[in-house]
Design brief:
heterodimer, A: 1057 residues, mainly beta, 22-stranded antiparallel beta barrel, 5-stranded mixed beta sheet, 13 helices, 7% helix, elongated, B: 570 residues, mainly alpha, two-stranded antiparallel ribbon, two-stranded antiparallel sheet, 44% helix, 7% strand
Chain lengths: 1057, 570
């Protein structure tokens, strides 16, 4: 027992024991302080060569020990350099200990879930986000700013929509039909949503991304998609500090689409009338005729200009932090306001948010932490990515914006304003091509989503003995989302001519989430001499959630004067409500051990019980193990001047996923769905009788989805000051018992069922490199680079099923086709359709008829094919192109993605240049299916369509002719390379020198300017290659009616005093 | 250390104690073991069994129109289509085929679950609900076997997602099973017509049994002569049972039968309509919800542009027309010499059914010009708009535009539909499943087939149908041999039952589907076929092949039902 006292931290126990001193020794006392003169507590003081004789410093840093005069005292304390003092005749020996100079790896603390470690001691694959770099420029939501920052973390925003949460995928998609989003742990609170709308990025202290199974297995059940650990800022003891930052941004559309101008459009229409017949409304009117040349210099109306605007963003954050040692408390309170106008007229995002983190010591052993965050986020305005109705392309905003006529007929004597404000294009609007004035849509449609979010957390930390800590937290979150819609008579659906027949209409929908969490952990830390370091964690957690949805909708209101408050004047419509409840309980255990910081072993085990599975399958068990070797600490390399850090990591583990579609998927259910397309209501004797029917099969076998992951990693840093740091990881993930909304043979009476079926593999390599290129006192240049390769492969689907076809709903001519296929042995969500070979040319015809032996589409028919029609490959060689000739035409998943940043500091200036890229992914540019089509009368087209096939003017063109047959199919004609390199951000800041600030009583003051989305290098013809309007695992890279991305210019300022 | 032990011990205790009950969350759904606790709930379950009929994928549109209403008398009139089955250019992955298949099987699944749940229920002690569901299930299987041929026959509810594969049963076996199931239902069935024609009664069952037997006796079903003979006998007997019941009569007005369906009225006097897909509401509110497109996709073209208060015909795309052959069937086939010699425009020449089914106008709107002068103008949705051939209109020349007229059977004229200005595309218009005139014609046909010769009585039944149409009939002597009577009945079925999703299956069971469809190729070249639809029907008819007597099994089903193979013709 006594021997233990020499081990330096546990040794405080020894204080309780009287030291035995012999008579010939002399009493030595003294005080141990750090370099700042503060007393050091629990420093071990012992006699060299006689470890049984030792003492420990008390609260004032004082010690007392009996030693022979010839003895040497050794002062030892973790984190400080060891000090040796010869006793001699001194009876008082005061010592100042110097902090150990740590490499970045030893100093940088990384969250690992239920605890944190120095990077040096990490055995798993965890990436820390460089918050300094990220916060150099203002970000509305932290998730979007992660893009390109961390290897293997793919952040996609479906488009430029305001207030949308980004879609983050770590190391590839694990799931097919269910969400692949990581687990977010925000101040210890696990959530399947990033809550990015509700968090103020200025409040974030750190973001750590747990990638391999060793790191994520502690979240076992829900860790399979990776874990993002977010820690918010806590107070720091000291005098109150005020931190203020604000920024002002100017945004404008970064890339408009080139459309046909007035002349080109009339020429196109004239050609079209010549083919289709009918009266050319541009050239003939009331018996008068006009010529095409009359349109040579008329005004072109670009409707994009009517809906886009320069938009301003204002962002203000203020925080107060501090703490008192005497009172034993620390606090950080912040408040932020964001007001962001979107570049589409009438769209806006606002957030009001406040947060308090407060901690208080209660006695010497107990500490209480209280964190409260409240936010309200309001998104308003028309969103091009949500349709008025998805059965027709005309239900989407951009259809009208791009397609609306760019020209007023020359005979039209109405004013420009009349033309611009007429709700319809009178010449064409019929029920099947209902084209509503987009400028009126965006100005009159009322759309508002209000999200309230409250998170309150109370934690108690009880240091039972110095190395044994018990921690209990209770968290309650409440989230409410209210969605409001109102369509007056000047809107797409509210107008009396709308085919929806809804008249003036409106709706309110509410979604609520109430979640509670209780976590209890016990941590035991033990260091045995300087050799063995042990950390044990055990805990139990409980969590529950109630999630419900309600709403009301009203159509054909008799007044529009009251807005939504006139709902009672219309007909109420069905909104099907639901409520979901689930609970989880878990036991967790983790062991971390290292020997002399050289050999590391981590093992964890978590057992999770979830109410989403039937009894017997509720529990899942998730073990993991990892090993790391800091080989730079081996004798051979210990004093190497070039290798500062070298670590090899190896890990294995199982993680889980319980994301069923509803928590009740395993129950056999009876349902009724009145007022819907799926209704089974029937009429008995003139009365509607509600139809109740079996809606779901029982699945007693439903269980956890499991992912097994291997990871090998290497961390290297070279030269003094860690001039070059390299991290490389290889991983392989096999996900099996996939939770899949599996297709059933519908002869069972069910189309789908939630099942554990199929498997998937993701493997890849991630490399990040950080270099300090120049490091002078007044000039530094650092570079960071990361790249990730991921290969995704579906290894099995529903029993024996070889492929899974997925359709996308956006336009009725396409809704029944399948542009995506997921096949066993290939990556998920491959693009699927015909291979486009160009247009049929005149020499392929004899007279008006296609020559024999040249394939033609069965749906067109041999007799109807004409020059200028699209020609598709006859893959199976049977002479006709039909369903059997569809094949894989593109891949939505990139070969690699990454980011590249450079930071220069020069005196007080800092310059940051940041690029991101994605390489090897394809985009299905559905916009071109409509806007390089030429089949729709009076619909404007992309400027590229000017070069269409024309038997006389342009007989070699591979852009199909006007009225071409076979245009309404998915083909490689519209699949494009979506690779891009984007100069995402450049910022230039200036921090005032300290001496100036001191006079002004400021601690820091920085001003900066920055620019976003500056330039993109891409071959993609659409407005933006970073697009995926149907962002799901099965339908990647679909581009239809996206919210355009903005170019932004920001000026900002931040200071602390 | 002791503290540690205490803490961990208490934690473990807590964990053990709560784990069982803590994870058992009461679901906020109706689980299947908690339903059917009252007669009302049993009735709701039965509605769920019938309810599949009203889905858009079944009688609301896909099955009734897209998959069954393109035949020699009714064609799809557009030059582009989203669903290729209307042109016989579909394949196994055509969504309308999958959706219809799925919806019919969902109806069967509902019936299986319902029957198992109420089999021993105190709330259905006399098994009436159970019996009705059993009949509907058998009828669903009839529809499947008729359209797809060999299909999986599941007579118990699927209870586990891991046991889902099921091989096909041959078409003949399915049909024989259907007949025996339906016959077993007769004992418990009622004659009471109170809720007819929305619910089936004993007479409906007889009538449907006659239809199933006729199809089973048909050319494409693999039975032998004995089976065919027996089936014709049964068909005759069941049709006769309906006739002898005396509960059903022909409504003196042919059009009134359909006006009742349009206006959601039940004919309580004649009960000619014996079973209808009963749609109600037009989606004006959730309590007024319909999934039927009848009258909208098949009706008189009417696309008003704003003046909804004044419209005389509610919104309709009107995608289906009557063919030249249908025109001729009315106009000069089986007509008496006396009527044939009448001038075109004189009333007696007109078959009342032609006036209704091949309406001389729609509500498309338009302008009639002569040179630069506007002679007449019609407002879309408001004015009856005649069909035109250059400057002649069907108002003045009622026999022009023979082959381009919209199907008038389910017109959404507001005087019938009751609601004015409905812009919606979902309608309250009902769709006939079984009519008494069909029963009369089935009797006549079955008698002729069973006996190899007609009878005076059989002739009288056909004549009864013709008399109601207001046309005279040649003497029995002209139809008294097997073949001429057979053709007479076949033509009469066309005239009486066109646009009712029956004709295609009639042609199939008569073994003349492909050759008859190819008749369009010459018809469309006739000078009587004016307008731009002739190319469309010619392309459609050229696509028809032998394989089209059945639909392909949907690709999705084949992909996951490992024991199923594609129809040999596909």
């Amino acid at each position: 027992m006594y021997r233990l006292t020499v081990s330096f931290v546990l040794a405080c126990l020894a204080v309780l024991m009287p030291a035995t001193a012999s008579a010939q020794d002399m009493q030595v006392t003294g005080r141990v302080t750090d370099s700042a003169g503060e007393p050091l507590v629990a420093v071990t003081v012992y006699e060299s060569g006689n470890t049984s004789n030792g003492a420990i410093t008390d609260m004032d840093g004082k010690y007392q020990i009996s030693v022979p005069q010839s003895g040497i005292l050794i002062f030892s304390c973790l984190g400080f350099e060891e000090v040796q003092e010869s006793v001699g005749k001194r009876s008082v020996i005061n010592v100042t200990m110097k902090e150990e100079q740590l490499s970045i790896d030893a100093a940088e603390v990384v969250s690992i879930g239920y605890g944190s470690v120095a990077r040096r001691d990490l055995t798993g694959s965890v990436s820390k986000v460089d918050m300094d770099d990220m916060m150099k420029t203002p970000v509305t939501n932290f998730d979007q700013a992660l893009s390109g920052r961390v290897a293997g973390v793919v952040v996609t925003t479906s488009d430029g929509s305001l207030g949308a949460e980004a879609n983050i995928v770590i190391r590839g998609n694990n799931s097919l039909t269910q969400s692949s989003a990581p687990l977010y742990v925000i101040d210890g609170f696990p959530s399947e949503s990033s809550m990015a709308l509700s968090l103020n990025s200025a409040d974030i202290e750190s973001i750590d991304i747990l990638k391999d199974a060793s790191a994520t297995a502690i979240y076992g059940a829900r860790g399979a998609n990776g874990v993002i650990v977010i820690t918010t800022k806590q107070g720091i003891e000291g005098k109150p500090k005020v931190n203020f930052s604000s920024s002002w941004t100017y945004n404008e559309i970064s890339n408009k689409v080139d459309l046909m101008d007035a002349y080109e459009f009339v020429e196109f229409q004239t050609d079209k009338y010549a083919l289709s017949g009918g009266t050319n409304i541009y050239l003939e009117h009331n018996g008068e005729t006009y010529s095409l040349e009359d349109y040579r210099n008329v005004r072109t109306y670009d409707w994009q200009d009517r809906i886009y605007r320069p938009a301003f963003v204002q962002n203000y954050n203020i925080s107060l932090s501090g703490g008192s040692k005497e009172a034993g408390n620390r606090y950080n309170a912040s408040f932020s306001v964001l007001d962001q106008d979107g570049i589409i007229v009438n769209s806006n995002f606002q957030r009001y948010q406040g947060k308090i983190n407060f901690s208080q010591n209660i006695g010497k052993k107990v500490k209480a932490d209280l964190n409260v965050n409240y936010s309200r986020a309001i998104t308003s305005g028309t969103n091009p990515t949500s349709a008025q109705q998805s059965s027709s392309a005309s239900g989407w905003l951009m259809y009208s914006v791009w397609g609306y006529r760019p020209v007023k007929p020359i005979w039209d004597e109405g004013s420009d304003d009349e033309f611009l404000n007429s709700p319809f294009d009178e010449e064409i609007a019929d029920a099947s091509d209902y084209r509503f004035n987009p400028a009126l849509s965006v100005r009159n449609e009322y759309r508002k989503t209000i999200q309230d979010y409250l998170n309150a957390q109370l934690g108690l930390t009880w240091t039972i003995v110095p190395d044994l800590v018990f921690k209990a937290t209770g968290t309650y979150t409440y989230q409410n989302r209210r969605r409001e819609e109102f369509n007056n008579s000047m809107t797409y659906t509210g107008n009396e001519r709308s085919p929806s027949g809804n008249g003036i209409n409106g709706a309110i929908y509410w979604t609520n989430w109430v979640t509670w969490l209780n976590e209890n952990t016990l941590t035991w830390t033990k260091h045995i001499r300087r050799a063995h370091h042990l950390n044990l964690l055990a805990g139990v957690t409980f969590q529950g959630q109630t999630n419900d949805y309600k709403g009301t909708r009203s159509t054909n209101m008799t007044t529009e004067a009251l807005g939504l408050n006139g709902m009672h004047t219309g007909n109420y419509q069905t909104v099907t409500p639901w409520e979901y409840n689930w609970r989880m309980m878990s036991g967790l255990f983790r062991l971390q051990y290292n020997y002399r910081y050289k050999y590391y072993l981590t093992a964890s085990f978590r057992a999770d019980g979830s109410s989403k599975f039937p009894r017997g399958n509720q529990w899942g068990y998730f073990p993991s193990g990892s090993f790391a070797w800091n080989f730079n600490r081996e004798d051979l390399l210990k004093d190497s001047s070039w290798l500062k850090n070298g670590k090899l990591r190896l890990s294995w583990g199982l993680t889980g996923n319980n994301r069923t579609t509803t928590p009740y998927d395993f129950y056999a259910q009876i349902a009724t769905t009145p007022g819907s397309g799926d209704s089974y209501d029937y009429v008995f004797g003139g009365e509607i009788v509600p139809g109740y029917y079996p809606a779901n099969m029982a699945n007693d076998d439903l269980r956890w989805e499991t992912t097994e992951q291997w990871n090998v990693g290497l961390d290297l840093s070279f030269f003094e000051g860690d001039r070059i740091r390299l991290t490389a990881d290889w991983y392989m993930k096999n996900t099996y018992d996939l939770l899949l909304q599996a297709t059933m043979p519908s002869s069972t009476g069910y189309e789908t069922a939630m099942m554990n079926i199929g498997s998937m593999r993701n493997s890849g390599v991630e490399i990040s490199l950080e270099t300090v290129n120049i490091s002078h006192k007044n000039f530094q240049w650092t570079t960071s680079f990361n790249i990730a390769f991921n290969r995704n492969k579906v290894t099995a689907l529903t029993s024996g099923q070889q492929s899974l076809l997925t359709s996308v709903s956006w336009e009725q001519r396409f809704n029944s086709q399948y542009p995506y296929i997921t096949q066993v042995g290939k990556p998920s969500g491959m693009m699927y359709g015909y291979v486009y070979e160009g247009t049929y040319k005149a020499d392929e015809f004899t007279g008006n008829f296609l020559k024999d032996g040249i394939p033609y589409m069965s749906s067109v028919g041999k007799d109807s094919v004409k020059p200028g029609d699209p020609k598709y490959s006859d893959i199976n060689g049977d002479g006709i192109v039909d369903d059997n000739d569809r094949t894989i035409i593109g891949c939505g998943q990139p070969l690699h993605t990454g980011g590249f940043g450079n930071t220069f500091t020069f005196y007080g200036f800092d310059l940051n240049i940041f690029f991101t890229w994605s390489y090897g992914n394809d985009i299905l540019n559905a916009n071109r299916l409509i806007f390089e089509n030429g089949n729709l009368t009076n619909l404007n087209q992309f400027a590229t369509y000017v070069n269409r096939y024309d038997s006389v003017k342009n007989p070699d063109s591979d852009i199909p002719a006007i009225n071409a047959n076979g245009m309404f199919v998915y083909s490689s004609r519209v699949v494009e390379d979506g690779s891009y390199l984007r100069l995402k951000n450049v910022s230039l800041g200036y921090t005032l020198p300290r001496r100036v600030l001191r006079k002004m009583h400021f601690d820091t003051l920085r001003v900066y300017v920055s620019a976003d989305n500056i330039w993109t290098w891409t071959n993609y013809s659409g407005p933006d290659p970073e697009v995926s309007t149907r962002s799901s695992v099965l339908t990647p890279g679909f581009d239809w009616s996206a919210y355009p991305r903005a170019f932004g210019l920001t000026a900002g300022l931040s200071f602390t005093f | 250390m002791k503290k540690l032990k205490n803490i961990s011990a208490s934690l473990l205790l807590t964990l053990g104690a709560v784990s069982c009950s803590f994870l058992d969350v009461e679901p906020v759904v109706i689980t299947d073991d908690t339903y059917y606790n009252s007669e009302e709930e049993v009735l709701y379950g039965l509605a769920g069994v019938y309810g599949a009929i009203n889905n858009e994928a079944f009688y609301g549109n896909y099955y009734s129109l897209m998959l069954s209403n393109t035949d020699d008398l009714c064609y799809y009139n557009r030059t582009s289509a989203n669903n290729y089955s209307v042109w016989y250019q579909h394949d196994a992955s055509s969504p309308e085929i999958y959706d219809a298949w799925t919806m019919i099987y969902k109806g069967i699944g509902n019936a299986n679950s319902f029957m198992e749940a109420v089999a021993d229920s105190e709330h259905d002690s006399d098994h009436k609900y159970w019996n009705e569901a059993r009949f509907i299930r058998a009828w669903y299987y009839f529809i499947l076997a008729q359209a797809w041929g060999d299909v999986p026959l599941r007579t118990t509810a699927a209870t586990s997602p891991s046991e889902v594969s099921c091989p096909a049963t041959s078409q003949l076996e399915v049909l024989r099973w259907v007949i025996s199931e339906m016959e077993s239902c007769l004992a418990l069935a009622d004659m009471d017509l109170t809720e007819s024609p929305s619910r089936v009664t004993k007479t409906t069952m007889w009538g449907i049994l006659a239809r199933v037997n006729l199809f089973t006796a048909g050319a494409t079903v693999s039975g032998n002569d004995q089976i065919r003979h027996d089936c014709y006998g049964k068909a005759m007997a069941y049709a006769d049972s309906v006739i002898q019941s005396g509960l059903h009569r022909l409504n003196p007005s042919y059009s009134q039968v359909f006006i009742n369906m349009i206006s959601d009225q039940y004919d309580t006097e004649y009960h000619e309509s014996m079973w209808e897909a009963d749609f109600m509401g037009n989606r004006s509110s959730s309590s007024n919800w319909s999934n039927g497109r009848i009258g909208d996709l098949i009706g008189l073209m009417s696309q008003p542009t704003g003046n909804y208060g004044e419209v005389n015909c509610n919104f309709s795309y009107a995608q289906y027309n009557g063919s030249l052959k249908l025109w001729n069937l009315y106009w000069n086939v089986d007509r008496t010499d006396a009527e044939m010699s009448l001038e075109d425009d004189e009333d007696p020449h007109w078959d009342a059914r032609q006036m209704w089914n091949m309406c001389p106008y729609n509500y498309q709107g338009g302008t009639l010009r002569q040179g630069n002068n506007v002679i007449a103008e019609w407002t879309a949705g408001v004015d009856k708009t005649p069909y035109r051939e250059s400057s002649r209109t069907t108002f003045d020349y009622p026999t022009i535009a023979k082959a381009v007229r919209n199907c008038g059977k389910y017109r959404r004229e507001t005087i019938y539909e009751g609601v004015k200005g409905d812009r919606g595309t979902y309608t309250p218009v009902n769709y006939p499943i079984l009519r008494y005139s069909d029963v009369l014609l089935m009797y006549a046909e079955a008698y002729n087939e069973y006996n190899g010769t007609p009878s005076q009585q059989a002739y009288e039944y056909v004549k009864e149908v013709r008399d109601r149409a207001g046309i005279s009939t040649r003497d029995y002597s002209e139809y008294s041999d097997y073949e001429s009577f057979r053709d007479f009945v076949r033509n009469e079925r066309g005239r009486e039952l066109c646009f009712e999703s029956l004709r295609k299956y009639d042609l199939i069971r008569w073994g003349i589907f492909v050759e008859t469809m190819h008749g369009y190729i010459s018809d469309s070249q006739s000078t009587d076929w004016t307008g731009n639809t002739s190319d469309v029907v010619r392309a459609m008819a050229s696509s028809v092949q032998e394989r089209h007597v059945v639909l392909p099994i949907p690709t999705i089903e084949l992909g996951v039902n490992k024991e199923l193979v594609q129809n040999p013709l596909w």
